[in-house]
């Protein structure tokens, strides 16, 4: 079983230890898999700010956004191509025809269609693209900036870009990027820990990346194509999905297959959706960026995230966690590269199973 071990850290002396010893972990499992579920392919601990954005475009080109903090410099950047059709699959470790910032993306990991239904072709690809974007982003002004994406003629539903910034003004945090493919039966992602002895729960964020979800404002509940997400058995949202990151002139009329993508991040807020949700769809009601804080209290011993997808046709390909005041070491599928959290001893976390996912079966309606 793949595990990550976490501990909460307090301010002051314990925090200074974490600052002096940033950690990263490299995924050591297979580069290609066709089993369901998400794998934690990236774990980074340090003084990092993050930026996440997605892009869905019908003409194959567009801009993906990066929100740069003042004084921040790029530590790492990661890129995902979501729902690549079978005839367009790139070859791992070989420059693909997909261009980011004008340069070919070389993918290191692929999560291939696990549904058994080739018509869905939910093949997802992951790459470290730090070398392709760091100098450009470092030279940009603070705030929201654009990076060009060219899908290179491939049949891709959309793309996502995650950038971690070195930022001495923020507290230590651990970033976990779980990447993979939707499970036909659904999955859960559990952070288990010793009872928290301090309120290290004030900035726990989660971003979800979903492709192939289609809803229009005003759609009635019985026609929704969306996912429900539960945290510690409490419903956080039942309206995750749709195409918030479709870059077309009129989302309501122009967004369709080939551009159906949403990723929680730039332009979003961690304000969680209202529960219960309305019986009619509202695109603005859920931006796929969430706060886990309302679901965690001092003394809790786990955070469990579960998903379900009643429409049976959405592809959750990315689940990203930003855990402030948390440091991590790992074992089994991820290799620890030198951070010992034992100095803080305020609670230990372990990711028990990876795979926030939904079901993939039918082709969706066209507008």
Overview of this protein structure:
The chain is mostly beta strands. The chain has one domain. 6% of the residues lie in helices and 44% in strands. It is built from three helices and 25 strands. It has helices spanning 13-20, 130-138, 251-254; strands at residues 3-8, 23-27, 32-33, 37-46, 48-55, 61-68, 73-84, 95-100, 103-106, 109-111, 123-128, 143-150, 156-166, 173-181, 188-193, 204-211, 227-231, 234-240, 261-263, 289-291, 302-308, 315-324, 326-331, 334-336, 348-351. Strands 2, 4, 14, 16, 19, 20, 22 and 24 form an eight-stranded antiparallel β-sheet that branches. The N and C termini lie far apart (43 Å). Mean pLDDT is 75; it is low at 9-21 and 329-367.
Total of helices? 3
Give the biggest beta sheet: 8 strands, antiparallel
β-strand percent reads: 35-45%
Number of strands: 25
Low-pLDDT segments = 9-21, 329-367
Q: What is the share of helical residues?
A: under 10%
What does the average pLDDT come to?
75
- The gyration radius over C-alpha positions equals 19 Å
Our measurement of the CA-to-CA distance between the termini, rounded to an integer number of angstroms, reads: 43 Å
Helix-and-strand structural type: mainly beta
Principal-axes geometry comes out as globular
Q: In the residues, how many domains can be counted?
A: 1
| Sequence of secondary-structure elements | EHEEEEEEEEEEHEEEEEEEHEEEEEEE
């Amino acid at each position: 079983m793949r595990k990550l071990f976490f501990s909460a850290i307090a301010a002051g002396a314990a925090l200074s230890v974490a600052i002096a010893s940033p950690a990263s972990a490299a995924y050591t499992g297979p580069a290609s898999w066709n089993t369901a579920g998400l794998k934690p392919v990236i774990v980074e601990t340090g003084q990092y700010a993050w930026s996440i954005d997605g892009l869905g475009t019908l003409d194959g080109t567009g801009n993906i956004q990066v929100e740069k903090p003042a004084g921040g410099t790029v530590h790492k950047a990661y890129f995902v191509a979501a729902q690549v059709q079978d005839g367009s699959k790139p070859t791992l470790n070989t420059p693909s025809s997909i261009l980011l910032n004008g340069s070919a993306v070389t993918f290191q990991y692929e999560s291939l269609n696990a549904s058994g239904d080739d018509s869905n072709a939910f093949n997802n690809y992951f790459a470290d693209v730090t070398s392709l974007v760091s100098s450009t982003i470092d030279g940009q002004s603070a705030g929201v900036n654009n990076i060009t994406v060219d899908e290179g003629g491939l049949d891709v539903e959309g793309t996502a870009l995650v950038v971690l910034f070195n930022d001495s003004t923020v507290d230590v945090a651990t970033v976990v990027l779980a990447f993979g493919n939707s499970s036909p039966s659904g999955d859960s992602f559990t952070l288990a820990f010793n009872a928290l002895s301090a309120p290290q729960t004030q900035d726990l964020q989660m971003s979800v990346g979903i492709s192939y979800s289609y809803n229009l404002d005003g759609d009635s509940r019985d026609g929704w194509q969306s996912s429900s997400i539960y945290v510690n058995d409490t419903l956080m949202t039942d309206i995750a999905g749709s195409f918030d990151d479709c870059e077309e002139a009129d989302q309501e009329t122009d967004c369709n297959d080939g551009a159906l993508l949403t990723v929680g991040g730039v332009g979003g807020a961690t304000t969680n959706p209202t529960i219960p949700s309305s019986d009619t769809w509202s695109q603005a009601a859920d931006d796929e960026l969430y706060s886990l804080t309302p679901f965690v209290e001092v003394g809790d011993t786990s955070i469990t995230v579960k998903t379900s997808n009643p429409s049976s046709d959405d592809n959750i390909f990315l689940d990203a966690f930003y855990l402030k005041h948390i440091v991590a070491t790992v074992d089994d599928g991820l290799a620890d590269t030198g951070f010992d959290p034992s100095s803080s001893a305020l609670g230990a976390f372990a990711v028990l199973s990876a795979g926030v996912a939904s079901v993939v079966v039918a082709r969706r309606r066209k507008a």
